[in-house]
Amino acid sequence: MLNRILIIxxxxxxxxxxxxxxxxxxxxxxxxxxxxxxxxxFTQHTYDLAxxxxxxxxxxxxxxxxxxxxxxxxxxxxxxxxxxxxxxxSAVQAMKHGAYDYINKPFKSKEILLxxxxxxxxxxxxxxxxxIIKTQAKKYNINNMIAVDPLMIKTFEVVKKVAANRxxxxxxxGESGTGKELIAKSLHYxxxxxxxxxxxxxxxSIPGNLLESELFGYERGAFTxxxxxxxxxxxxxxxxxxxxxxxxxxxxxxxxxLLRVLEESRFRRLGSVxxxxxxxxxxxxxxxxxxxxxxxxxxxxxxxxRLKVINITIPPLRERKQDIEVLLKYFIDHFNSKLNRQVKGxxxxxLSLLQQYRWPGNIRELKNTIERIMILEDDxxxxxxxxxxxxxxxxxxxxxxxxxxxxxxxIRQGIDFNGLVKSFSSYLIEEAMKIAGGNKAKTARLLSxxxxxxxxxxxxxxxxxxxxxxx
Length: 471
Fold this sequence. Notes:
Layout: E1 4-8, H1 12-24, E2 28-32, H2 35-44, E3 49-53, H3 61-71, E4 78-83, H4 88-96, E5 101-104, H5 109-139, H6 150-163, E6 170-173, H7 180-189, E7 198-202, H8 208-216, E8 217-218, E9 230-231, H9 233-236, E10 241-245, H10 252-264, E11 266-267, E12 276-277, E13 281-286, H11 290-296, H12 301-307, E14 310-313, H13 322-339, E15 345-346, H14 348-356, H15 362-376, E16 381-382, H16 389-395, H17 417-435, H18 440-446, H19 451-461
């Protein structure tokens, strides 16, 4: 699709010469002799670029620039101002109101073609960025998140309210896999900072000295390998959000420097003597209990209260079992599309086991479990037989005796009681025997029985005594 350009100039010769030049370069061009005609064309077509003369018969070019830039905020055409009466003040005004460039007449063809090319490329990049932001905002929209549990619904409402305040610091607490980063991104993309960067850093994955240089950057010569200036993540996040994941693992010496940034909104690069002022929102997350770290002296109490102006706690999946069924449906639909499968759902028995399991890895573990099943199994319904052993084992009804039957046994179909008891007893003794290295006294202690009882069981069950050490 050809880029569409609007040329606005009261001099016919300039209009026509520019039209000839740009049409020959492959652009679609419209012409306007004054502001009124330009406004009319602007309402009828969508333009990628406007070349605007600073002095028009019926208006000032700056006024036209303002109209083009404010009609559809952040989506208007790129604008280049043209004038034969250039001055510093008029150039400053043009750039202040959003002009891409300011050129003086007369101009050379190569100069115009280059500036037009660069302006259109810049406009294309801006559109791509807007599309990415739009996609991310939709992806992390809190209204699209999957939950029916009242605790999570309440959490989502808190996120919406907090996002409306662009400056307040937020601390997100929850176990691994509960979706802390997802909440952090929702806070960013729901806020007025959405068009600016979301910068994430994991404090546990980077050693303290490297983490400091990553956050603050450094000047050339700040240390041995600092051969050039480096901008830190705080600078790169200007206007946006800094997400500090696993904040509980940050070293105390760095905590003091972070506290200063939170209090004063400024910092220094390593090796610098001047401060840099920043405008960012800090969102932190941890799966640790920071109060206990404060008691141990590994986390600063003053930093803790600076970080948790708003505290959001995400409950683990085992405490919101209502969400498991809706999450299952979501993940099955997702992997049906991704893996080109036609899985229809989960059997009642499998659903019951999945809801009983404690999910130590929370939503991440549930997602990985469903993905693994859908890759390895061919059936249209996920049944008990498809579930991993850890889900089957820990989710079986244990009753008051604290034991469960292996999956191959089903009391409803009838079982060999004596044979099962004998097999299980033999298994326990032989496993204890291996751990004890064949020593009967140690084997008996592991099984909480005396040696006489152990000898009786060995004889009764027919276990070979030769494997025991001779005493």
